[in-house]
User: Fold this.
Amino acid sequence: MRKYLLIIVVIFLALDAFGQENTDSIVVQNSLTNEIPKSWELRGSLRGLAKVFSESPSEVDLLESRLKLELISTLGKKSAFRTLGYAVYQYPQNKIYFDLKEAYIDYYTKYVDFRIGQQTNAWGKADELNPTDIINPQNLNNITEEKSIRRIGLFQTKADIKFYDFVLTGIWKPVFEYMKIPALDSRWAFFTLPNVKELPAPVYPDSKLKNTEWAFKLSRTISSVDFSLSYFDGWDNIFTPVLTMDTVTHRPSLDKLVTHRTKMFGADFATSIASVGFWGEGAYFLTEDNKGSDPLIKNPYIQFIIGADYQFRNNYKVNIQYFQEVQTKINDDSEETIEENLSSKLGIGLPLKQALTCRFEKKFGSSEEYKFELMGIYDLKYNGILITPKFFWSPEDGFNIEIGYNLFDGDDKSFWSRFQHNDEIYLKCTYSF
Amino acid sequence: MKTIKELILFTVFAMIFCNNYVFGQTADEIMAKVDTRVVPKDTRTFMKMNLIDSKNTVRQKDLKTYKLSDEKTMMWFLSPADVKGSCFFKISHDDKDDDMWIYLPALGKVRRIASSATNGSFMGSDFTYEDMGDRKLKDYTYKLLKEEASSGKECWVIECMPNTGVSTDYSKIISWIWKDDYFALKEEFYDKKGKLKKIKTSELTKVKTYWIPQKILMDDLSAKHKTEMVFDKTEVDTGLDPKIFDQNNMTKIY
Assistant:
């Protein structure tokens, strides 16, 4: 591993040195930031969110005040600095916490852009469900929250190497974090475990260099097709429960929560054909159980999503996607059930096997100050659905009001059916400054 | 006497020839010159986009625009606060649909925009993405209607009819092309029913040797709504590096 690290550092330094030979374009490029009159800027937003269960209107799901603060600075001609954090108050938990999403420094050279620090990196061309978007885990305590807020910021180093018309992105992730999922006794619990009321703290990999995570992505646009190939070598960010047999009761009991090493080979593309936008994204996840012989570790699996969107006249926009997960090395139905019950899994982050998503948008008003959106995720395999109609209004620039409804329904085995008594209406107001 | 006759004949021929050459251009020739009009190698400008409704309420958006010839355009939104940091990037093609991408900070990644979005409004303004782009010469059939002045400038008035199969919001466009610089000073856009829908007027200013827009007003008659684009601090031929026009840089400029 050290040998590889050394080679990469040498390549970066060599490219950087090569980049110094002709810095004209760098200066021009960074003169963009020089045009901003201030060398630093503070901006952000304040968001108020109220969610109430519709089955029992007196019961509040969440009242939240979320202050977003973003500090941006250009340190010089070749570097920039950015921090983005949230100060959050939540009720009924009655807690205040600070969530640092990003705090990084950028350094630009002609051929390589470096970024070091707390950061989020969003991968994938699909809308909302992204098999290759696995660099940052998500906080799924509020599954209907915006993805940018759900993403958990982590310390990473990133380098974008530009050569010919390609960009090679390399990410080194020394800090591992699990996805955050709702507590087992919560109305939003993803699953239940027999005789377990509270999950123990999961076991983290030792802080050793060999336990760190790596990711690479090669991107290019050829003939109006954007595509990328990606690779990830890291940990499942959803834990696997390890059960042991109680010698007295002869019943299984939860011993600990662990993670397993997984490799991801991904690809995505986006293009426009005959005015219709098309995209696709897929990934093969090579787990530690590559022979499919260990019942406690998930077999290798594939996730893919394809989608299309079209904007009709008068600002109607439709977006449709099909998602599927394919489990490999399955010999019979019982094995498939065992595999499905294993929660450990990278990829889209939600336990969906086959789904159809649809988004319909209509903007109206003289300055498009109103927008209606209807979003649905249909679980094709187990017949369940999440439908969210939303209405947006922007009374003035920088001030937005959103009112919506999250409706969950489905058959018992469907993921969405778990929340069929959690239908809720929400109101969101955002003031940006 | 013979010499005088020859002189008269020569003068008549010369007048006919000159008239054909200078004043007798066909609509196709004029529009070809509009298409190949000399433009700056690159342009940097700040733009205020004022959205004005029927009650004269104004919503203002500020943008920074970089343009590489007529081929590549990048626009960063500077205000209002809820769209600040967003970036629009377009590569124009003569032989196929333009490539367009948008970066929204809330999304955290660059997304390709389908060509069908050209029907849609550009950030809530009266300009569609189609209006923001350059029309492809081969997509239209042209007819010279008349010659008349617009804003005190002598113009050719040319009807542009879209050819069959061309995706456009309009049934026809009438352009007032300034004779001095082959620039469309005024354009009328007619909807699919043939009704006048929008009128675009441009005021020009000279920067170095180029006439470039200082103000563009798009009046949507059907929506009773206007959008005014005012360009400020325009610089041309600054030597912008073409490498700036890259998807990766959409996320960089704050």
